[in-house]
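Appendix B. One record, verbatim.
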Amino acid sequence: MIVKQGSILAVDDNEDILFALKLLLKPQVESFHTATTPCQVPKLMKTHRFDVILLDMSFRDKSGEDPEGFKVLKHIFSFDPQAKVIFITGHGDVEKSVQAIKAGAIDFVTKPWQNERLIEKVKQAIQLPTNGITRPVPAKNHSPKTTCRLVYRSACMRKVAEDIRKVAGTDANVLILGENGTGKQLVAEAIHDHSKRCDQPFVSVDLGSLSESLFENELFGHAKGAYTDAKTDQPGRIETASGGTLFLDEIGNLSPHFQTKLLTVLERREVTRLGESISRPVDIRLISATNRPITEMIQNGQFREDLLYRINTVEITIPPLRERTEDIPVLLDFFLRQYSKLYQKIRRRADKPAVKYLTRYSWPGNVRELQHVVERAVILSDNEILSRDDLYPENNPLQQETISTDSHNLDTIERKVINQAMQKHSGNITQAAIDLGITRTALYRRMKKFGLND
């Protein structure tokens, strides 16, 4: 069973390319839109929220000389700073890919593409969190403190910000620990933005969503002719990140076999593309993250101890939102400002009872869940002052502080809540995941665990 996720916009002046993308991706996603000219993009973005935008790099200006893809990218970001853009280019060289990443694209693909790899890249991009991408206004006087993209008031997050400041100026490898939705990627970006490598690429890889069949191709790249569909040379993510920062998210999900391969790259500081015998030197600053208990995994033989020593010169632990409730009001205000502006609404505020309720809620999905709650309220409510009912509609399965059930078994309760969310949204996994405050991938795994996706 294919679980359809996400809304895609493909922008290319070649209608044959758009037709091929539609045939490939429409069965995989909830909605697929196309544009043949850059001028169509703003109108589409005003009426739709896209999870991923596939953008041709080789649009030409009226003189037919200069590529316009990068100009279109800037225009997209001016409209939506959180947009996730994947460049499509006919040039598979490192220079173009690095230029695309530095311009703000999250990834790139080359024509002709490998179908399986393109689908994998799109799925990874859909699952990539965007909480808090917009940079907050710098703090003044008694305003909440900010460090790059982090918004906080609590002492425990002040400690995280101080650790970021201390480690950013070094090239030390960093391991970020924390539950899903706490903002591990934002901390990684903050370290990069305050480092000596800040003007070089920040390349993110979600190892939790990367299939083993594509691991080497994705991280190490391939040479032309390495396999049937390898029609051009293609650098991997590690090579693309050379000179900058490589962020490996969900590193605890890496299989023992690929842990060994990654360790070899980190020790030798070089990669070998599939289909080549020569090694290419790489200069990366490595930041990793996981929500899994790495120490227990080492004791159980699930994670290599020598790899842990390589990746955790410094550890930064992000506390869950329930342990820093004083941050909830300032995060709430930040997201209300952000989404009021994004959706062109009158500036929204929350009343005191709503704020009090939100600070008492346990937030199993952490900051990401709070972000989704606020975004939904800004979209659906016509009220300038939001109440508790606006922020948690009555039929939301997580609205109640206690869940009525004839069983105290956690699996039974979780299965019931997921069922309620899926029924509420008529099987739409994206909306159900937003209501539950977890990623689509996490919801899909839970559905698979309980046999709900059969």
